[in-house]
Each structure stands twice: as C-alpha cells, then as structure tokens.
Amino acid sequence: MPKSNVLFIVVDQWRGDMLARLGTEGLRTPNIDKLCAEGVTFANHYTVTVPCGPARASLMTGLYAMNHRAVQNTIPLDSRHTNLGRELAKFGYDPALIGYTTTVPDPQVTAATDPRFKWLGDVMDGFRPIRTFEPEKEAYFGWLAQNGFDLPDNRDDVWLPEGDDAVPGATDRPARMPAHLSDTAFFSEGALQYLKGVTPGRPFFLHLGFWRPHPPFVASAPYHDMYDPADMPGPVRADSAEAEGAQHPLLDYYLRHTGRGSFFQGADGRASDMSEAEIRQMRATYWGLMTEIDDQLGRIFAVLEEAGRMDDTLIVFTSDHGEQLGDHHLLGKIAYHDESYHIPLIIRDPRRGHRAGEVEQAFTESVDVMPTILDWLGAAPPRHIDGRSLLPFLEGGMPADWRQEVHFEYDFRNVFYSSPEEELGVDMDEASLCVIRDGKWKYVHFAALPPLLFDLESDPHQFTNLAEDPAYAPVLAEYAGKMLSWRMRHADRSLTGYRSSPDGLVDRRASASSPLSVS
Fold first, then answer.
1. Which of 86, 117, 176, 387 could form a disulfide with 126 if both were Cys (CB 3.0 to 4.6 A apart)?
2. Which of 337, 315, 371 minimizes the C-alpha distance to 39?
3. Residue 118 lies in a domain
C-alpha cells in the first residue's frame, strides 16, 4: 500500500461538549462541522489525565498516567517510553511538530543543569519541531517583533485587553495584538509554510497544535465580540462556592486557591467568585477563540485540497483536555469533574467514508489515538500500550470486547504554582485520584482522601455524593473492584508477554508462538 499522510490537529483546553455536531447551538465552526460531516465524531471521548503535560504524555505514548508516570506538569517523562514520533520514524515518516508537548526531559539521561528544567516543558523527544512555543514562547514573541509589533517589557502583557483603561478580567474588549499576529495565526502560518514546502509525492505527518482556546481568555478582533454573552449557556454550579466545596476537601481546596490571574492576564481575585455575567462573557470569548481556530483550519484544509492531498490524508482533531468554564465554580482542568476530561475527537478517514457524518457513542480514551494513527498507516502499534485502535469504529463495528466505561486519573501533588499536600494532609505519593465512569455510575477513588460516588442518571451534574450512604455500599464495592481489576490488567506489560522456554524466547502476544530470534 502506498504511504499516506496524517494531519494530527491538537487544540488546547477545548471542551468535548462544545461541538455543533453534538448539539452546541450558535457556535460557528463551519470547517470543523465539515470535518464532522466527512468523518466520525466520538461523543464520549475522554482524556485519561490532566493537565497539559500528563495529558499529552498519554496522548503520545498511548499509556495511562499510572504507567508513564509523568503525572503532573513539571514531572519528567521517562525516556524508556516510546511515543508516536519515535514509532513514526521507525516506519519511515518524519514526525513534524508545530505547537508543543509540555514534556520535561528525563534527568536520568541528561544533566541537572540542562536548561530545559527551567521551564514548564519542552518538545517530546522523537518529534522534529517546526514551529513551537517552547521554550517560553520565545519563537512567538520573536515573530511578533519581526512583524513590527512593539513588545511590552512583560511579554505576557500582549494578552491584556486593548486600552489603557481596560480592567483585567472577563472582557468584551479585543486583545492588544491583531488577529493576523495572534498565537493561532502563528501556528497556522507555520502549518501553511510546511504543507506548501513538502516535496510533492512525499508522505507527511504533521502534528499541528494550537494553544487556544486555552487562557488567557482574551481574543483578537473580530473574534472578541463575535458572540453575545446573553446567548451563552449559564454555569452549572451550586448556590455558592462554599456549598460546592462541601462535597470534598480537594474541591474545597481548589475553590479557595484557584486565582483569576491564571486565566485573565493581570487579574486578581478568586476564580470561584466570578459572577454569572462574567462567566457568560468569558464563554463568549472562549467561543470566539474557537471560531478563530476554525477559520485558520479552513485555510489549511484549502491548501490540502489545492494540492490534491485530502484524498490520501487522515485528519484527526482532538484536544489535550477540557475546561471547567465556571461550572462547579471552577476554572481550568482539575479535580474529577467531566468538564475537565471530556474532549472532542473527530476522525476523517478518506478510505472509510460509509460512516461519514455519524456520531459514535462508545466510550473512547485519549490513549486510543496513537495506536489508531499507527494502525491506519500500517505500522503495528507497540503491544504494551494501553490504548486500542479505533479503526473498527470507522469501518462500522464495535469490537465485542470493547470497554464499557472510561477511566481517568489526576495527581494533585505540589508543583511550583500549587501546594495542596500540606493543607490536605497527604504525602506526595498519596496525592492522587482515579475515576471509573460509565453511563450509570461514576466512582472516584482517592489514595488518602474519602471516595465519591455519583448516580449519573438521576444526578448528571454530580452534586450528590452517595459514597457515605450505606444503601450504596454494594455499588461502591463493585466499582472499587472494577477499578482494581482495570489497574491490574494495565500494569506495565513491556516484557510480560515474553517467556523463556526450552526452545528459546517466545512472544505470547505474537500471532504465532514460534521461538523468536533475538539479535
């Protein structure tokens, strides 16, 4: 089979429920809508961990966080783990990357003085960076300066709203940089340059990352006031942050300690104190950032069309994680709520069009993306990974042994910008939770804090914790057992499929159990 192309689009902090194809009324994303019409939209797709670094580690390695163990931003990724870039190179592809992966290098294979330990993350080994944010967004700021934009002394102030009298926070004012110089334009211009420069006939793989709709929540004109805040859905939350926080100590911690400054450049105050009007304005800006990405994707798709490459290019659109957007009085991607973990996944397969426009309801996870891309290219996915190829869904059938639930993890140990361990009274290696969620129940297990149990049919927004109700003890035990079994099945399997025998080394996972020759 002749080699084909892959365009792997990874946006940042895009909620899974915010797609027109899934019923979001008023959101204008015609190019993504067309992608949905020509591909399959996975309605119940979840990242297996948050925030950015751990989520991208799972996305690129196909491993649950319990196996790759890069469990928080700032935590290194062990170099022994293969990833999508390395596997593509084995198969003869040049794994080009535009965007970022937020990967901290392995200190076992470099020095403590490595400058990459000074920032949040770098590009994952195995990818060839074309245009990136890392380190410290220097390439983007240099691009702004090269294009005549006057950089402020504090470079991040480019994301302040326009006007000397602007008040930092949720705003209908435009960002200080024009749309043609936004970070979204920066990445899309890199993609256009790359795609136009690819040697005709040479197969390509491009990881195309966008920072948006990640905060700061400010948009360039005309996207800043494209949507009316009054048309935005209101937040789903308890009557007060204090009432919300009564559900669990971890939730209470984040409600008290998450500041607005991480979401609005220069802002003060708690995120949990935002009014409904502020949240609606923030959501209007968030939608504007989404439409800006869609407009740029239209330019990129047009270049593929003009080059005649849409018919041999797999297009995958997904996000690293979601965003609370004021639901449960929270901003960001934290704790255990679905808004942080439910993410979009659209796959347009030019070889399999009979399911075009359909919505798949099966539970899928971010670890499934890596093996799907490799499988589509004809490269065998590594056998030890946790994800499974989604090609059977594109062909019209769900495997009989497919998972009936999703799983996701969160590690809340101290990092340089958050310190919950002391207040919650947990050790670094106890600061973790794991979730198992199906269509009926959601169980949240903590290593050293009380568990949570929600009935999703009667309480879809998860306000009522049933874990302490004796009537639900059998359900609690059942789902705790399911989680234990899941973890046991997915413990590191890098070498457990091999065995020695009188005839030599045997690979039990191979289709034939004949002895292997080992070089």
1. 86
2. 315
3. yes
Please state the domain count of the chain: 1
Residue 504 belongs to a domain: no
Host H or E run for residue 89: helix 84-90
Q: Which of 52, 57, 158, 377 is catalytic?
A: 52
Three-class SS of residue 279? Answer: helix
Residues 128-168: tens digit of each pLDDT: 999 999 999 999 999 999 999 999 999 999 999 999 999 99
> In terms of residue numbers, what domain contains 319?
5-403
Q: Compute CA 130 distance to the chain's CA centroid, rounded to the nearest angstrom.
A: 21
Q: Residue 179: which CATH number? A: 3.40.720.10
Tokens read off for 244? 């919300």
* Whether 390 contacts 368, CB under 8 Å: yes
Does residue 417 belong to any structural domain of this protein?
no
Pairing of β 128-132 and β 95-99: parallel
- Whether the model clears a pTM of 0.90, i.e. scores above it, the answer is yes
Supply the pLDDT for residue 512: 42
Chain CA centroid to CA 503, Å: 45
What DSSP line would sit under 298-343, residue for residue? HHHHHHHHHTT-GGGEEEEEEES----TTGGG--SS-TT-HHHHB-
**Residue 36 appears among annotated catalytic residues:** no
In terms of DSSP H, where are the helices of 126-240?
138-146, 183-197
User: Is 14 within 8 Å of 321 (Cβ atoms)?
Assistant: no
CA–CA separation, 387 and 234 (whole Å): 35
Query: Low-confidence residues of the chain, pLDDT below 50?
Result: 1, 511-519
Name 157's Cβ contacts closer than 8 Å, sequence gap at least 6.
Answer: 176, 265, 266
**The two structure tokens encoding residue 449:** 């804090």
Q: Report how far residue 289's alpha carbon sits from residue 473's, in angstroms, rounded to the nearest whole number.
A: 45
Q: Residue 296, SS3?
A: helix
Query: C-alpha angle 123/125/129, rounded to 5°?
Result: 50
